[in-house]
């Protein structure tokens, strides 16, 4: 994820503990540690480790188990929205109703997510994630039942609002890596890059799985399967107590929003989300056919591949450089669309996607660095909330541009403008400058 000087390492003992060890109760360093203070594995220790950084990650005890549970729980993130549209539109014959219900669920989730994350920070992952995931899964099953019985439309809005308790599974996984690798910034960078690749994989495969289940079995099948996967993955993740970060002592810092630099960084995430949301809608409107989904999936495929490669990099870029690269490569779909070739557009989306993972990895690294250790889940969830708000704004703007475009490729100007805005905000506010790790 982030370059070595942009990663969070919660304060720890003066000597590097073994992976998975918890700090001694009541032990707090007098001064926060910067990246330069952190010990790194000795040359002798590095010589005994596998050369492949991803192999080294999963050689650590417990990492395979919690990663498997987290992957299962995150797959539904790309399923719930598509499943809801399929089942509601199929039963009620109204895409407008399906879209409105889905938007209600997203809005409720955006409001509730930071509060759920704060509970996770204060009481631990296992104590909060399991009941929150169970409540969310129950709400999804009730929604599927109401849709199956064609209940009044108002009940769909009411029930979908109760599904907003979903914990941020990706944030909890990143918090585990940050705890396990707190004294190895290179390995933490690789872990964060892997997590971003997992996000892209879930958003590639999730919609395909949801559409397949909804069309082959019954309209509600995708929602039922997603609820089962989400709860099952959360239970498996929570069972891995050896890698769960210890509950950090509470501080008087208040909300992470009060941390210097956090609000400007969230504004950058908001603009970055608009890039993703507008590109999706514009590309779907331009292709407008059964191949639209596979063509658009190439953008996620490019991001997934770039994320894995970025995790192997020894020298990484700063956030302004990543955003500048994104602003440039977002012009590729526009240039490809002007040719009228669907194959060229597919290639343009693949190239454009390659800037996504490095940008997100570096940005989430800054969130980790700025956020106090006792509020890590809350800080990352705020970033995801800002990102989703940007996706919604970008979708609306991209949809308007697609409907009012003076020429077919006009809509592809929106993601370019959003990426340029993100770069301008980052440069103007100084986001990405070296700061000290929060206590």
Provide a descriptive summary of the structure in words.
The protein is mainly alpha-helical and 439 residues long. It folds into two domains: 64-247, MFS general substrate transporter like domains (Growth Hormone, Chain: A, Up-down Bundle); 252-439, Up-down Bundle (Growth Hormone, Chain: A). Helices cover 68% and strands 0% of the residues. The longest helix has 32 residues, at 185-216. The two termini are 21 Å apart. Mean pLDDT is 76; it is low at 1-44 and 434-439. Residues 19-39 have a biased composition (Basic and acidic residues).
Q: Count helical runs.
A: 18
**Oligomerization category of the chains in this entry:** single chain
Broad CATH class of the largest domain: Mainly Alpha
Might you state the CATH topology name of the largest domain?
A: Growth Hormone, Chain: A
Mean pLDDT: 76
Distance between the termini: 21 Å
Q: Tally of extended strands?
A: 0
Shape: globular
Order of helices and strands: HHHHHHHHHHHHHHHHHH
Residue share in helix:
55-70%
CATH superfamily of the largest domain: MFS general substrate transporter like domains
CATH architecture classification name of the largest domain: Up-down Bundle
* Estimated structural class: mainly alpha
The major β-sheet equals: none
Total domain units:
2
Beta-sheet strand percentage? Answer: under 5%
Rg, rounded, reads 21 Å
List the uncertain runs. Answer: 1-44, 434-439
Q: Could you name the key traits of this structure?
A:
disordered N terminus; 2 domains; transmembrane; Growth Hormone, Chain: A; mainly alpha; 439 residues
